[in-house]
Amino acid sequence: MRGTAILLTLCLLSAGCLGGDSTSDVVDRFNGEDLPFGDPEYNVQPFSLTGTDGNSSNLSDFEGQVLIVSFIYSRCPDVCPVVSANLHWVSQQLASDYGTNFSILSITVDPWWDTMEVLGNYSGERNLSWLHLTGEVEALEPIWENFHVGLQTYENTSSEGETSGRHHPDYLVDHSTATFILDREHRQQVRWNDLDWEPTLFLEDVQQLLDE
After folding, report:
1. Of 29, 87, 91, 122, whose CA is between 20 and 30 Å from 107?
2. Could you state, in chain order, the average pLDDT of each consecutive group of 10 residues for the chain (212 residues)?
């Protein structure tokens, strides 16, 4: 897959990659962007991905838990590290609930580069204790679609003349994503666009779903 320009476009929101929902069924309950309650489009479909330890992780492993799902990639220079730091803070505030009442999942949007070893280094360097997941593109595409991830990879012209391989990837990733909070039945309830994060308000949204 490397060695040639990779062109992949997944802009899957009908109203745009980060566009809001026009449906009148949305009720303003949360600090983040409320998603249409009861709309089957926002039910998370079963999936199985690979963690940094090489073990498979399935959605069913988190039955009955509130879930936070973020989309990151290890080479991200700006937004992803900030989101990861915010999630680390949230996990510390709810430490007694973590792993029993709620969990966090970070899913890569760059599976060509983000092997389990690479994600292990990313999470280890930042002291992030939750699952960072990768997999084959065929396994990830339905998940990106389910969460309306806008993703494009394009040729990295700055790598011309450099040696090939993982030290100098020949593509860049442009993604429009968000962090999602799912209720205990794994319905997408709240979306926080990556540039709108306010950790204390995000924490309030998580706590509200924990209390229901």
Report:
1. 29
2. 40 38 64 91 94 95 97 88 96 96 96 94 96 96 90 58 42 73 96 91 97 94
